[in-house]
Amino acid sequence: MKSTDLYVGETRKRSAGPLRLVLLLVLLVALAWVAVATLRVGPAPEIAVEPALPGIGPATPVAVTLEAGGRGLGPWRVELVQGDAVTPVAQNEVEPPSAWKPWASGSHRAETEIEVGHASIRGLRQGEATLRVVAERASTWLRHPDPAVAEVTLPVRVTPPSIELLSSQHYAVQGGAEAVVYRVGAAAAESGVRSGEAFFPGVQVDGVVDGDGERVALFAVPYDLGSADEIRLVVADDVGNRAELPFLDGFTPRPYAEGTIGLDDAFMARVVPAIADRTPGFQTRGSVLEDYLWINRELREQNRAQVAELCAASPPEIPWNRPFVAMPNAAVMSSFATRRTYTHGGEPVDEQFHLGYDLASVKQAEVPAANAGRVVYADYLGIYGNVVMVDHGLGLVSLYGHLSSMAVAVGDGVERGQTVGRTGVTGLSGGDHLHFGLFLRGHAVDPRQWWDGSWIENRVAAKLGDGWAYEQ
Predict the structure, then answer these.
(1) In terms of Cα–Cα distance, which of 400, 435, 438 is closest to 420?
(2) What is the rounded distance in angstroms from the CA atom of residue 256 to the CA atom of residue 374?
């Protein structure tokens, strides 16, 4: 054999070694790829089903969340099961990446909000139903694992609680108040009077109405409410089933009065800085007029919201049994629900409703509590200046504004006629007087009804019966 043949043979052997190694690596990679594509199924998704209500009513919101690692989520669906009936509610046909693409990653999280209830699902009946979420796992050409399933079983309620009117003689006056006594069924979670956009809850008053579902509600008829059709007794259960009952025997509209207030620079220069100094975060709008208008609009609404918050905590009790009293020997400077037009330089610049009575006698006159109750506020309050507020129960709260001094503190019990402060010129006051307001659950009502002992006897005491010893 020639030496050249030996050289060529050795060269071929040396070059064949790396080639076999490369082929082996390729084969191993291919086998691994095939193994992954054959065996790599997705992990079972984690499923959370969170109903917003304790049962299924007309439209129960439900939050559904799905999470999956690995290749991500596969198709999923939500269905409601009751007996043999299966109703599709929601679905998503998302597909995970192919098992032949191990480098790819799909969607790992899905969130959806759905509603289930007898308003949208025909044939749903009283009893129980199961909300089921089925989530397919990422599969391969050979392996098809069972889907992940989560179920929540809930009671189904299709009828609202009962409501029965017990009292009579309900006559609503625009801007005024009324009382109603009624009975609700055991399933009732909330009940009361819807008056326009406002809601006045009915409460059980120990010793006054029977505890077996009987409720009493004092409610306001907003000064801008236009029709008796907007006043209803309502009841609802804890899953949203509602019933309404008209109950008024009469409705009297009462047009509001009109008034004009001229704004002069000296007045604004006096009241604006004083209010600004007592209003945290106040920022000037550039001129005394713009600052005044912000106070008259935005701060007024903030103050009313604070009053409403205080009224909401009123206890279900009646600590008084005599008519309300007004400040004695006082002239009425402005009455309830007067629509005031504010002018500056002869031009209208604002419009607001005056939701109370302005009463004036002498400077720093004593201000009596309108009736027995408990002090829930005694401090500065924006447009009202120094304010005392007295809670009389059932959401009824009296407000005494523009005081020069206060004679009571929060938490004090007061008697009818007890001095709570003295009149003054604090807040948006042009002269020494008392701003007296009455609120039901934060909604202003005309005090004249509550100053009238006969009105209280006929409209409130007669409906409560012997459980409340009213003295006119």
Answers:
(1) 400
(2) 31
Burial of residue 40 (number of CB atoms within 10 Å: 0-12, 13-18, 19+): middle
Same domain membership, residue 412 and residue 316: yes
Three-state secondary-structure class, residue 250: strand
The two beta strands, 198-201 and 190-195, are antiparallel
243 and 283 in a single domain? The answer is: no
Alpha carbons 116 and 404: distance in angstroms, whole number = 58
d(CA 388, CA 393): 16
Q: What is the pTM of this model?
A: 0.85
Tally of domains within the chain: 3
- Give dist(CA 353, CA 349) in Å, integer: 14
**CA–CA gap between residue 366 and residue 400 (Å, rounded):** 11
Taking the CA of residue 388 as centre, how many other CA atoms within 13 Å lie in the half-sphere pointing to its CB? 31
Residues 209 and 314 placed together within one structural domain of the fold: no
> pLDDT (tens digit, 9 = 90+) per residue, 54-81?
999 999 999 999 999 888 899 999 999 9
By the 8 A CB rule, do 72 and 158 touch?
no
10-residue mean pLDDT profile of the chain (472 residues): values are 54 66 70 53 87 97 94 92 96 78 75 96 96 89 84 97 96 96 96 97 88 93 91 98 97 91 96 96 95 98 96 95 96 93 96 96 97 98 98 98 98 98 97 97 96 96 91 86
Q: Which domain holds residue 232?
A: 163-252
